[in-house]
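Schema walk-through. Below, the input block comes first and the output block second. Nothing else is stored per chain. Lengths vary across the set, and this one has 314 residues.
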Amino acid sequence: MDKLIRGLHHVTATVGEAQPDLEFYTGVLGQRLVKKTVNFDNHLVYHFYYGDEAGTPGTIMTTFPYQPMGVRVGTHGAGQITITSFSVPSAALPFWRQRLEATGIAVSAEVTPFGEEALRFHDPSGLVLRLIASGADARPPWLSQGIDAAQAVRGIHGVALLVRDPAPTIAFVESLMDAAVVSEEGAATRLAVNGNAPGRLLDIVRADAAPAAINGIGTVHHVAFAVDDAEQQLEVRRELLRRGIQVTQVLDRQYFRSIYFREPGGVLFEVATVPPGFTADEPLAELGTALKLPPWEEPNRSEIEAGLPRVVHR
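--- output ---
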């Protein structure tokens, strides 16, 4: 199969309350709210998309604020993405440490298994996040108040997958996604998908004794990978079926089309198309300013708006 996967598309997490989530990702991390919509499986739950100006694949973090639905706190463990890392400029970590601590967030400095300087902390729902200093990320950032280009987040750096047996996961990602092992350090193996650069990195971490992951508040639900178009996506789907892997039908997510499947270690993967993108239903300058619903939910708008918690986007 020709190389089809272009890198990461987005990371999606199950989180707690909507307003603290919105304030953290836009107000603290300085990301743009590029889309405010609803979970297509539960229209009384928001779906927030955060990223750069246009929501470029590889910059996008998305969240489902499920706490009002009574969802339990999840368990971090094997078969799950346990760390989501964002890329910032090489000299930006002191700025970010001061900014995070000023908002009451506990921060620890660390060096990743691959020698990168980083800050580790938790978002309001308990997701484990890192800011990794990188001098190799040329992606233009979204600039928000109090954060200039010398400090701003560039996008997703990569994710860490916790699995009990890394070998099948590594082989799967290498063969299906044409990824390459670029480093191995202790229990961690880094793979690069279509180039060794931020926004394309998967760290596969062995954890023999880790508890089984349970999805819930404060856990990553899935990671998505980008393909250029619907035909490439179907080609990936045909290859998955050829290998005997269960994969969903193509699902219309309005801003991309998606298929979902699990890799051998149990982590949920998505393959998402780059088009049509987030300007499909609102202009670039207005992204994230209004509640957008898919056409089949528009007849229910009054009920949906009444059922969603009120949020203020400053």
